[in-house]
Amino acid sequence: MSIQGTCTPQFAEVRTEFERNFAERGEVGASVHVTLDGEPVVDLWGGIADPSTGQPWSEETIVHVWSCTKAATSLCAHILASRGELDLNAPVVKYWPKYAAEGKDTTLVRHVLSHQAGLPALTDWLPAGAFYDWDLVTSALAAQKPLWEPGTRHGYHGLTFGFLVGEIIRRVSGLSLGQFFEKEISGPLGLDFWMGLPDDLEPHVAHTIPVDPTQPGILLPSLFLTAMTQPDSMPALMLLNNGGYMTPGESDSRAAHSAEMGAIGGISNARGLAGMYRPLALGGAYNGVRLVDESQIPQMSNTVVSGLDAVVGVPSRFALGFQKQVDNSYLPANDAEGLQMPEDAFGHTGMGGSLGFADPRARISFGYTMNRQGPGLALNARGQSLVDALYRALGYRQSHDTWFACA
């Protein structure tokens, strides 16, 4: 398999593991990018973007990054908070009055960012194509009764997160979520990252290769098993009541790519993910572009909820909008995937295994994207091998599946 790009000698093991992903772990097409002190030290890509034609994965290839998008949406909220335009401790109704319906008047913005809002799914059935109609979904969420008392537990808002946080951003900024992201983040930083992909970039998208659950050795996580066997459960509502968005192949339609969906709709590559996190690894600014004040970084990196996730059914940990490291390796094999990185790091995985994060202590940013999905919800062996190689190169040590700085 031909691997292209550059990698400094210190991080040669990252390249080795990237090559092993293709040779031993079933990788089809992928990219990985790392910056240290703001400078690229790993920028690699390779494999096949389109197996049906043999089109190679190129430097310009982009791909659906699924829930990595949540970090981009969360960053938009933190930008407004850093400027004093959004109070993360204020009630949502301060910015979105109709959200008060059905006892949600005490829900705080921080509850929404930390998956405590109690709206991981809608109970009234959505029509086909609903996720491409922003007003329809946000109106339904405003009217929905929470599935638990907001602030009393956390449960992954896998598909609704972007509409909830994005509507707050829209009401504060006067811009749609995609417009705000382009104006304040992707445009100034020159990132290949879109929430609402322009028509002319569609040929550059490597479509998702989904998991085939009928293949030997494929173990579906509890979230999917619950959805398949308990039709009234929160997992079932989340995965089935989305206007058909989770129907196989629909997420790679032109309608899906052009829509602004801040939980799961982002299109990017490893360079775009790592580039978004680069300022956050350097105190909030890079190359004259300041996203947030340095004092905002702890709000983005400090864990606020931890424990059993009410939706996913396994432990999870979140800061305000970002995932934190979690070791689930002790769980049964179908739920054993976690996110093993230092406690200082914060970021987000995407369904099937993509990942972006910043580590302010190590002053690194990281991005990994691919087209062939793994069966789990978090980081599988392909992405984790790259993270592990990265921290070994930095001189970190590993204990109980978590990385620690040696000094």
UniProtKB/TrEMBL annotation:
Segments forming domain Beta-lactamase-related: 18-376
Matching Gene3D superfamilies: DD-peptidase/beta-lactamase superfamily
Protein name: Beta-lactamase family protein
Alphabetized SUPFAM superfamilies for the sequence: beta-lactamase/transpeptidase-like
Pfam families: Beta-lactamase
Source taxon at top rank: Bacteria
InterPro entries assigned to the protein according to its UniProt record, in alphabetical order: Beta-lactam-related, Beta-lactam/transpept-like, Beta-lactamase/esterase
